[in-house]
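Hi all, a correction to my earlier message: I attached the wrong file for UPF0339 protein. Here's the right sequence:
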Amino acid sequence: MIRIKKDKDDQYSFVVTAKSGNSLLHSVPFASRKDLDDTVKQLRPLVSKTTVFERQTSHNGKFHFTLKNQNGAVIGMSKPYSSEAGMENGITNLRNRITSLDSSEIV
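and the right structure:
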């Protein structure tokens, strides 16, 4: 599911969740709903590309990934994972979730 939120500063963001309800990706803020909607429409073809995922390790040894658009701008970030294998599983789960979404799962 993709949950869309509007914050107190009138910016929009989305969260991609697994069927279990766990968060897979938190987006960056978008200035308008149109920008967010355009980005959400790009997700399915985007996640099939390996170059859009940037894997990172934080200073405390946790692993996370960012998802970038075709221009290299960050769209969102994953939660921290305790292992590299967990992060890779997170990427796989995100890909599977986005490719299996239908329009009723975008709220």
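Sorry for the mix-up. Residues 84-100 form the longest helix (17 residues).
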